[in-house]
Design a protein that fits this description.
By secondary structure, this protein is mainly α. It is built from 9 helices and no strands. The protein is elongated, with a radius of gyration of 18 Å.
């Protein structure tokens, strides 16, 4: 399915689509489900195969990541505490917001950088920063650093892997699967740390 295949997504939507996906996943509340990590890695890999141009791709993903986070900050700044009282919907879960809030409280300002590498959390953390936890000048500095490490780092990782390994296209899907597993692992660990969550999971399995 195209929705599960980053290669098909990129070939279908092109540079503009890649920009839109990274932008939405970085700061729009409805973008938490988008495949940011795997998309960046795959885009870099495709650049190594001549499908995309690396020096066009790099600024696109970096700018999308930075502007996306800044947009999330603006959303938080405008809506403030109202976000926490918003009702759950198909594209919004307060549990995601609280998860990001716990992450923010634990790691402080460096959360803006660290959250880049944690799916779902990276979508909601900029919003929390805008709610009132951080001045924009401070936020922006972390935003730029995090955007560079995440967007450029993963893209270059895919690019150099594609250049170094012969017939790397044979290993692309397994590599993407590994990236997805690694990216969701922190969230799984966070859930399993809670005794109540473990009890709910065990109860559900026994049904």
């Amino acid at each position: 399915m195209i929705l599960l295949d980053p290669t098909s997504i990129i070939k279908t939507v092109g540079y503009l689509g890649v920009f839109a996906i990274i932008f939405a996943e970085s700061g729009l509340l409805v973008g938490f489900f988008l495949p940011g990590d795997s998309l960046l890695f795959t885009a870099g890999f495709l650049a190594s195969q001549g499908v995309l141009h690396l020096w066009i791709l790099i600024p696109i993903v970096f700018v999308a990541a930075v502007i996306g986070d800044s947009t999330g900050y603006s959303i938080g700044k405008k809506l403030g505490p109202k976000i926490f009282t918003r009702k759950d919907s198909f594209l919004f879960r307060k549990s995601h917001l609280h998860q990001a809030n716990e992450f923010f409280q634990k790691h402080g300002g460096k959360t803006i950088v660290l959250a880049r590498f944690v799916p779902v959390v990276r979508t909601f953390v900029p919003v929390l920063a805008g709610v009132g936890l951080m001045k924009y000048r401070t936020f922006l500095s972390y935003n730029v650093i995090g955007g560079a490490l995440w967007a450029i780092g993963l893209t270059l990782g895919g690019y150099f892997l594609g250049r170094i390994i012969p017939n790397a296209d044979k290993y692309l899907l397994p590599l993407v699967a590994v990236i997805i597993v690694i990216s969701i692992l922190p969230g799984v660990v966070h859930v399993l740390r809670s005794a109540s969550n473990r009890a709910k999971i065990i109860s559900y399995i026994k049904k």
